[in-house]
Amino acid sequence: MPESTELSLLPNKEEINKLPLFKNLDASHIYVLSSLKDCLPLQYELVTATVLGFDSESKPTFRRGEISTGPHLIQLATAEKVFLFQLNPDILNFLKPILANQKQVKVGFGLKNDVHLFRKKGIELQSTVELSKCFSAFGFKQPIGLKNAVALLFQQNFPKFKKISISDWSNMRLSSTQIGYAAADVYAALLVFQELRKRSLLPEHTLRLLEQVNCLDQ
Question: Which segments of 65-112 are extended strands (E)?
Answer without folding.
Answer: 73-77, 82-86, 105-108
